[in-house]
From TrEMBL:
Residue intervals passing through the bilayer: 230-255
One MF annotation (Gene Ontology) recorded for this entry: cytokine receptor activity
Pfam families: Interfer-bind, Tissue_fac
Name of the featured protein: Interferon gamma receptor 2
Domain Fibronectin type-III residue range list: 126-225
């Protein structure tokens, strides 16, 4: 008996260590994280972050329940490999309250379930902007055709909020509410650049509305009206006619007064200074200078006659020159 007691205690100690090591090595699978329902234009899906493991392929299973029936049911996402699950058409009712849950599976090992917050499509979906099909531009309006972001359903109506402004004064914006997919923005200025953007509002209940995202601004320039076009044509014609008349008057003036203009445009005639001195005082020795200059270069000598008085003085100058030439000849002989 004394020998069996130590052996028994040793056996119990070994069994305890084996159990402890088995408990530490037992597989534990973490639950998915970032579980969230994404909904855009009533197209909803569940997304989550993948579960990372060292070995094996992790699969995922999604269940749902509604607010009317507190019972979990399977969806079309059982043991799937990807990390998202689209809601089936059977759960597309916009007013239902849905709760989804997802878990990870690795072989026979499963993680804990992760549930979402209650989801109601008509309250929690994100409404996108409408699609602008066409814009017809005139001188004072823009005719806009749009397509709604999702199909219509009984009990719901859409309203379009249209904001528009002049591109030069973007701080001043105007807004209109339309219920049709074809509407017109009126009372615009011609030849002006206008920008607009559209936002959809879902009218689900009299006391509840869901406002969507705004579209990207689009800009268009209005055209010119027919009245303004005719006015511009008349103005251009009048300006051209006035220009032609001015040119004609200018040419007539030049033709009629061309002699006076020519007289005014010529510089005044001036008598050379040495002739002017001689005319003032005939006794000045200018002729001697001229005579010596004529002897040096007789080809360049020129005589200027200025009226009758000038002719008399010129004849007297010529006589003096002739007498001097005779005296010089007599000296030579």
């Amino acid at each position: 008996m004394p020998c069996r007691a130590p052996l028994l205690s040793l056996l119990l100690l070994l069994l305890g260590s084996v159990r402890a090591s088995g408990a530490e090595s037992s597989p534990h699978l973490p639950a998915p994280k970032d579980v969230m329902i994404y909904s855009y234009n009533f197209r909803s899906l569940l997304r989550w972050s993948p579960v990372e493991v060292d070995r094996g392929l992790v699969l995922y299973t999604v269940n749902y329940k509604t607010g009317a029936f507190n019972k979990w049911d399977e969806m079309n996402c059982t043991r799937i490999t990807h990390t998202e699950c689209s809601l089936p058409w059977s759960l597309k009712e916009r007013r239902w309250t849905l709760v989804l849950r997802v878990r990870a599976e690795l072989g026979q090992v499963t993680s804990d379930w992760v549930e979402t917050d209650p989801f109601v499509a008509e309250r929690n979906t994100t409404i996108g902007p409408p699609k602008v099909n066409s814009v017809t531009v005139s001188s004072d309006s823009l005719l806009i055709s749009v397509t709604p972001p999702f199909g219509s359903e009984a009990g719901y109506s859409l309203q379009y909020h249209v904001s528009y402004w002049e591109n030069a004064s973007s701080s001043i914006k105007k807004e209109k509410k339309m219920s049709n997919t074809l509407f017109k923005i009126r009372n615009l200025k011609e030849l002006t650049l206008y920008c607009f953007r559209i936002q959809v509002e879902l009218l689900a209940h009299p006391d509840y509305q869901l406002l969507g995202l705004q579209s990207v601004p689009e800009c268009y320039r209005t055209t010119i009206s027919e009245a303004s076009r005719v006015g511009y044509i008349v103005l251009i014609f009048v300006l051209v006619l006035l220009f032609v008349n001015l040119v004609a008057v200018g040419l007539l003036f030049l033709w009629r007064y061309h002699k006076k203009i020519k007289y005014w445009s010529q510089p005044p005639l001036q008598i050379p200074s040495h002739f002017e001195e001689y005319l003032k005082d005939p006794n000045t020795p200018v002729l001697e200078v001229l005579h010596s200059y004529a002897e040096d270069d007789p080809d360049n000598l020129s005589v200027v006659f200025c009226g009758e008085g000038s002719q008399a003085r010129g004849s007297r100058v010529a006589g003096e020159a002739h007498s001097r030439s005779i005296s010089s000849d007599s000296d030579i002989t």
